[in-house]
Amino acid sequence: MKRNNRNIQIIFILIFAALICFPGCSDDSGSNDTTEPGKEIISFVFEAARNEALDTDAAGAISGTRIRVAVPLDTDTSSLIATFKTNGESVTIDGVVQESGVTANDFTSDLEYTVTKIDGTTGVYTVTVFEGSIITFEELSLEPDSYWAGDEDSVSFTSKVAIFENSWEYMGEGQGYVDGVDFYWDGFAYSNMTDTNDEHWGPLYQFCVFGESGANSSSNFGICYIMLDYETYTYDPIPQEVTFTDRANYIPEGFHVTNTTYTIASLVHGDQFAKPFGGDTGDDADWFILVVEGFDSAGDSTGVVEFYLADYRFANNDFDYMVTTWTWVDLSSLGTVAKLTFSIDSSDADENYGINTPAYFALDNLTLRSVE
Fold this sequence. Notes:
Blueprint: H1 5-20, E1 41-46, E2 58-63, E3 66-71, E4 80-81, E5 83-86, E6 90-93, E7 96-97, E8 104-105, E9 111-116, E10 122-135, E11 147-148, E12 156-159, E13 162-170, E14 183-191, E15 193-194, E16 208-209, E17 221-225, E18 240-244, E19 250-258, H2 261-269, E20 287-295, E21 301-311, E22 321-322, E23 327-330, E24 339-346, E25 349-350, E26 354-355, E27 360-370
Parallel strand pairs: 3-10, 15-16
Antiparallel strand pairs: 1-2, 1-5, 2-3, 4-8, 6-7, 6-9, 9-10, 10-27, 11-14, 12-13, 13-14, 13-18, 14-17, 17-27, 18-24, 19-23, 19-27, 20-21, 20-24, 21-22, 25-26
């Protein structure tokens, strides 16, 4: 894919930023696991080693007090053992104490886990087990503090049943960024790099999530970069596709999303092309939106879900926000799909070159329910 001169300008800007910034993403705080007493379930998984009905681990996606766990087709869910982490004093189901990695339960219908804090207050989690797949990216091999964004042979990568579109192009001898980023890419990548400094926007920070881990304290997550259509000179965002390996249809339950460190740095401080959100006074009604669209097997749209990654349109500036934690986006309204597309739009756009805001987002726990 050819890039225009504006992208070459970005290269030089990023080289300079990388020379003055910390050279890599960092994780100053380690895991998100809470050590203070509470009433939360932090992680939830059916381990294959403890469940004869499973060949591989089935990790749950936690959103608020809802835990979704996908298992393969025809899995017997009548007696499964859950392994979970909690910061509570005790965990029960209908008054029966639950021991992580030991207690078996019938998950053919929803179960409620009650977590009791040391002060006696409680939190209730609803666990739903269904046939399908949760795309966690955890099975994809990465060295610590690293990423994969493509290679000369790649047009996509696969995580479980999902195929993620990817485009990669070598810049050429002596044309690269520093820190080994010597290529163009767009579409999807995967990473385990984290950083929470909103002044870090060198080339590696496009692969960093603004946080301390993947969703639910996991290691890996996906990164998406939406390229603009330079070749036709429309500079419209080019939606990136997720399809499925078995050509089956799924009902997307939802996924976790947050911003990258690179994008947050631009939203807060602005950059060579983008303005700081809110402007100098904080009153500018800026917005940065993710658009997800579903398509059925005939190629017809099943609907659109929009989610604001940053929203500064409120009359009271105290309500303005940018997403800096993993947040669940419900996609169930899209119904049965054969394909999903992801795109980005922003209020900060150049009339000649399109979106100025860096068009990245991070995703995790894409939850797909099998269609009967």
